[in-house]
Amino acid sequence: MTGSTATKRPRYGASSTRSRFREAVNDFSGRSPARFAVLIFLALVALFTVLLSLPVASAKGTATGFADALFTAVSAICVTGLSTVDMATHWSGFGLTVIYLGVQIGAVGVLTLASILGLVISRRLGLRSRLLAIGEADPSHAHSGISGSSQAVRLGEVGGLLATVAVSALVIEAGLTVLLFPRMLLSGIQPDKAALQSIYYSAMAFTNTGFSPDPRGLAPFATDYWFLGVLMLGVFLGSIGFPVIYAVTRAIRTPGKPRWSLHVRLTVVTSLVLLGGGAVLYFALEFSNPATFGNLNVGDKAFQSLFLSTMTRSGGFATIPIDQLNGSSMLITDMLMFIGGGSASTAGGIKVSTIAVLFLAAFAEARGNDSVEAFGRRIPVDILRLAVSVVLWGATTVAVATIVILQISGATLDAVLFDVISAFGTSGLSTGLTASLPDAGIYVMAATMFMGRIGTVTFAAALASRHRRQLYTYPEERPIVG
């Protein structure tokens, strides 16, 4: 009897300790979901920095410098694709595996990842974990709570959304791998190498990262439209957003006339407009540029223009030297990278729904309408205020980083602005500036990637309380605007 009792006490004590730990995590995540997510994000960056600093992670068997290891870790977790070293030759198999895992974790999203970790710890998806997941699926909840019945993803659907995140990533990447593998075999690549590169490319496309395992980049496949088309498909699916994928899969499971939410409609329509508009502009602006599309026939120019437009969404792959684009094309690319992809997607930027809301507000003002409307729905004023805040904070981040990098590097404004926006929008396209920056500039670019990935709304919510009650109002007075 005594022996039996003695063996039970440690189990009870361990169980009690784990229970208290779970309750502490739940309490902290419930009080400040955004801070909890940012802390998890920083912990992941620290962990992957240490792993990439190890000699075993380098192809030469030597330790990688802290600045390069940190930048690569942030770039992987932020699914950006920028690098300060040659990704294909610098890292060993272990290092590439670490980067691959970092990209997959980063693609899940900061708040969604925090939700999953909270689920593992608490063994159930409670209200607080659901709030965390909703924060990633609909960042406006970090600003205004969960009130309202017209939200993009309702509270009861979060469990399904989390399952969609995991399953869709697995299924889409597997499908892309199946499409890429035979094409690589036909190009003469050995089966084992072709399999590994197919898995790697599929992950880098869907996560919108853009790292290439080949030292030549996409040069061997620059005219392979099957290969490039599969990459475009992966980038588009990754950038459209998990809420949209969730809505589509739900419509497939329940045949009939689907009722798309306003978020889904805005995201799909705006994404297609930006994709097509970007392709048309690149076709026109680069038509006679011999360093890019000038020597191609009309059909090749059209395809390559569409490919470049797709990659600006956050894809990061390139078949042409980006620094050889005309100044007008670089400005268009800056704009597209700053906008990015859909909310709760693997893409970065201010998101297409944000820019859509701002344009709808401008049209409503021009027409003299009191409310902002789209697809038979009225958009609340607080969403408009949030959209304005996201753009202003994003522009401020880009402006400050650009000024600092200009001072550090002494490079030209167009090159610095391009790479800074690429970092903020987690695009990965580069003029070559990032790889030549000193350590101080590398740290600034890493911070820019961090801000771009976690989102300005999340970062603001992490630094301040979400609600502040004000029991009085000031007299109204209208300043002159415009």
Question: What does the model show?
Answer:
The protein is mainly α. It has one domain. The chain is 66% helix and 1% strand. It is built from 20 helices and two strands. The chain has helices at residues 2-31, 33-53, 66-77, 87-90, 93-108, 110-122, 127-137, 141-144, 158-186, 191-206, 225-240, 242-253, 262-285, 298-315, 327-339, 352-367, 381-409, 413-424, 439-454, 456-463; strands spanning 372-374, 377-379. It has a two-stranded antiparallel ribbon. Helix 1 crosses helix 2. The longest helix is centred in the N-terminal third of the chain and has 30 residues, at 2-31. It is globular and about 70 Å long. The N and C termini lie far apart (85 Å). The relative contact order is 0.11. It is a multi-pass membrane protein. Keywords: Cell membrane, Ion transport, Membrane, Transmembrane, Transmembrane helix, Transport. It comes from Subtercola frigoramans.
